[in-house]
Amino acid sequence: MKYRFIPAFVMLLAGLVCCILSVVQRWPVMYSLVVLVIVLIIFYIIGQIVAQVVGKVVAEHEAMVKAEQERREAEEERRLEEEARRLAEEEERKKEQDSEREEKISQESSW
User: CA separation (Å) from 16 to 10, 43, 89?
Assistant: First the structure.
C-alpha cells in the first residue's frame, strides 16, 4: 500500500520526457499521441513491477530485522539464565563451605 504511487510517478515521468522529446523533434500530433500512449502503458507496467520488487525487498528486510532482534533477545535470555545458574551454584558452594566450617568448629569445641 505504501508503494502505490510508484507506477503513476514512473509513468508520468516517462510521459513528460516523451512529450518534451516530441515537441523538440517536431513530431506530428497523431504520431506523438500514439507514442505517448505506448510509452505510458509500458512504463506503467514497469512501475508496477518496480513497486512489487520494492515491496518484497522491504518485507524481507523487515523480516530479517525481526529475526535478528528475536535472536538477540533469546541470546540475552540464555545469558541471564546462565548467570542466574552460576550465582545459584556459587550460593550452594558457600552454604556447603559454611556448613563444613560449622562442623569443624563443633568438632573442635567438643574436644
Answer: 10, 12, 74
Q: How far is CA 59 from CA 31, 49, 51, 63, in A?
A: 42, 15, 12, 6
For the chain, first and last CA: distance in Å? 87
State the Cα–Cα distance between residues 49 and 32, nearest whole angstrom: 26
Q: Tell me: the pLDDT tens digits for 43-66?
A: 999 999 999 999 999 999 999 999
- Separation between Cα atoms, residue 57 and residue 9, nearest integer Å: 20
Q: How far apart are CA 107 and CA 98, in angstroms?
A: 14
Condensed to tens digits (0 to 9), the pLDDT of residues 64-75 reads 999 999 999 999
Helices then strands (H, E): number in the chain? 2, 0
Angstrom distance (rounded) from CA 63 to CA 83: 30
pTM of the model: 0.63
